[in-house]
Request: fold
Amino acid sequence: MIRLEHVTKVYGKGKNTTPALSDLDLSIEKGEIFGVIGHSGAGKSTLIRCINLLERPTSGHIWIDGVDLTKLGKGALQARRRKIGMIFQHFNLLSSATVYDNIAFPLRLAKTPEKNIRTRVDELLKLVGLEAHAQKYPAQLSGGQKQRVGIARALSSDPDVLLCDEATSALDPQTTDSILKLLLDINQRFNLTIVLITHEMNVIQSICDRVAVIHQGGIVEQGPVAEVFLKPQHPITRDFITRESSHSELLDAVLAGPHSESSLAVKISFLGDKTYESIMSRTVRETGVDFAILQGTISTLKSVPYGQLIVRFDGAPDAIQQTLDKLTAKGLNVEVMES
Amino acid sequence: MSNFGELDFSQIDWNEFGTATIETLQMIGASGLFTLLIGLPLGIMLFMTSRSTSPVLKGVYSVISVIVNILRSVPFIILIVALLPLTDLLVGTTIGVLGTIPPLVIAAAPFFARLVETALREVDRGVIEAAYAMGASTGQVIGRVLLREAMPGLLAGLTVTVVALVSNTAMAGMIGAGGLGTLAINYGYYRYDMGVMLVAVVLMVIIVQALQMLGDRLVIHFSRR
Reply:
């Protein structure tokens, strides 16, 4: 659906150049929610702006549905952009226009008859739950409501792609959840492809199908969220994930503390229905080792349950090894922690 | 003849004041209109070219910017004299209401253009970006986003400009422009008729007050923040 090919973006000219993206390739499937996570300055903002050519890449190609956007003329690009919705961190609504007129804005740009606009805007107001606020101005709305207007506006011209530029970063946690729920709902209802950039792992975790981690203008890791989340390869990815489970210092203290040769700290991850099975207790009963839970998370990735436990096994070394083998055989991901 | 400090309103010809007031309002109206028609596009051009990355447009910006600055730095009274041939060419006379309008506009339009540029800079860049992302053309961005969002600032700038025009019409009175300025200068300044001068000044103050109040009302009406 969307393919970025050798995309490079360099700001400035001559000596004062700042590379933002370097030879970046990315491929996004139709109907998926694709997340790009990165620290500020990693290039994620440039990346999402390259998709609709708000930023023209210095070199490389942007393919959407087999059309290379970088080859389009002005008019054709404007027409294509009408089918790519975009929402923003600071909403970017017209402050001088009512909620209704903001949502109608893209339709008026496309010279849609006013009668059709009314039907469409009413539909969208209902979708985002703002029927009662149609005649208000953005300044009279809360952040969450403003983002709902932003979403309605982005959807008004029936796009096939929605770009979300840090769409929840300016919102509080509850509002973030409700906006993410709305995005997920839209994605499922209209089979809309969503590309979002964020610096928050929980956004990726709640709604994304696949994720790419961007660092210094390049993708350092990508894949299905569960895979990246449970088996992070790159240090940056690990950093994002441990930041999310905020008690890592506590754990470090335990791991660094006194431990005997007959104990071993292990990280065990499981995904899907296994989350609810009593694999751990059955296994230790068979092998006769004891265990203490040092840290644990049971949560969901999008709607898939997953768990991650850090436990310390106590027992004979070969019994512990046997335990690890059995757990692996049952489909759990087992990783020995270094202390 | 009365002296400075001694007022005598009995000699005042009120018909003359009526005519002068109408002349002043005509000058303000006509020059205000042309200032808007020239200054607004000029200000938009300044704003659009100042943000451009293309070297050609950057050049255009520098050229307009320098011209605007020159016109703004020349004292108005000198500008009137310097523009006499051009004024004659444009309107066929250099005196009276008609002969005053070209110098008034040429002095006020660059001033207004700068105020337009400043007002447009106040528009949230994110909103402009959002409009481009929605497939807006440059014309649509100007018409439907920039001018609309900057409306309060533009109206405030227009008010300031028109008020400045009032004082410039008075200065144009020095060279026989007509209107309240001529009256104040001919009677009050040259003939020491304090009564006439005072009435002329009071009338101009009233005009400025009325314009400022109207401007403020409009600004409030269009403010949505």
The two ends of chain B are 57 Å apart (CA to CA). The domain at 14-222 of chain B is CATH 1.10.3720.10 (MetI-like fold).
